C-alpha cells in the first residue's frame, strides 16, 4: 500500500458490510470507526496493540474488531498507543 497525500475514500458496502461510519476517531498513526450497526473497525499502524486485534501488526484496510461486549459500541476514543470503546449498556473496553 502507498501513503496518500490527499484525502481518499475509505469504506463503502464492501468494507463495512453495508453499514456506514457514524463515529470516527484517530490516534497517532491509526483510525477507528463505529459503524451504524454498532461494530468497531480499526486500521493503520498497530504498535502496542492499539488496533485491538491481539497483535501489534498493521492493518491497511479497515478490519472489524471482535468486541468482548455484546452491546453495540456507541463511542470510541484513540490515544497515542491505545483505544477505548464505550458500549450502549455503559461497558468500557
Please, could you describe this protein's structure?
- The strands form 2 sheets. Strands 1-2-3-4 form a 4-stranded antiparallel beta sheet, with no helix packed on it. A two-stranded antiparallel ribbon has the order 5-6.
- It is built from 1 helix and 6 strands, in the order H-E-E-E-E-E-E.
- It has 93 residues and is mainly beta.
Write the layout of secondary structure elements.
Blueprint lengths: L12 H4 L4 E6 L3 E6 L4 E5 L14 E6 L8 E6 L4 E5 L6
Antiparallel strand pairs: 1-2, 2-3, 3-4, 5-6
Index terms:
mainly beta, four-stranded antiparallel β-sheet
How many helical stretches?
1
Overall geometry: globular
Q: What is the count of β-strands?
A: 6
What percent strand?
A: 35-45%
Order of helices and strands: HEEEEEE
- pLDDT under 50 segments (min length 5)? none
Q: Summarize the biggest pleated sheet.
A: 4 strands, antiparallel
Order of the strands making up the biggest sheet? 1-2-3-4
Amino acid at each position: 500500500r502507498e501513503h496518500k497525500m490527499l484525502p481518499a475514500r475509505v469504506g463503502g458496502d464492501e468494507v463495512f458490510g453495508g453499514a456506514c461510519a457514524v463515529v470516527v476517531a484517530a490516534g497517532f498513526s491509526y483510525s477507528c470507526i463505529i459503524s451504524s450497526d454498532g461494530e468497531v473497525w480499526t486500521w493503520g499502524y498497530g504498535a502496542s496493540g492499539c488496533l485491538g486485534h491481539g497483535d501489534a501488526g498493521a492493518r491497511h484496510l479497515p478490519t472489524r474488531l471482535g468486541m468482548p461486549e455484546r452491546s453495540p459500541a456507541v463511542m470510541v476514543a484513540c490515544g497515542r498507543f491505545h483505544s477505548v470503546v464505550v458500549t450502549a449498556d455503559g461497558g468500557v473496553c
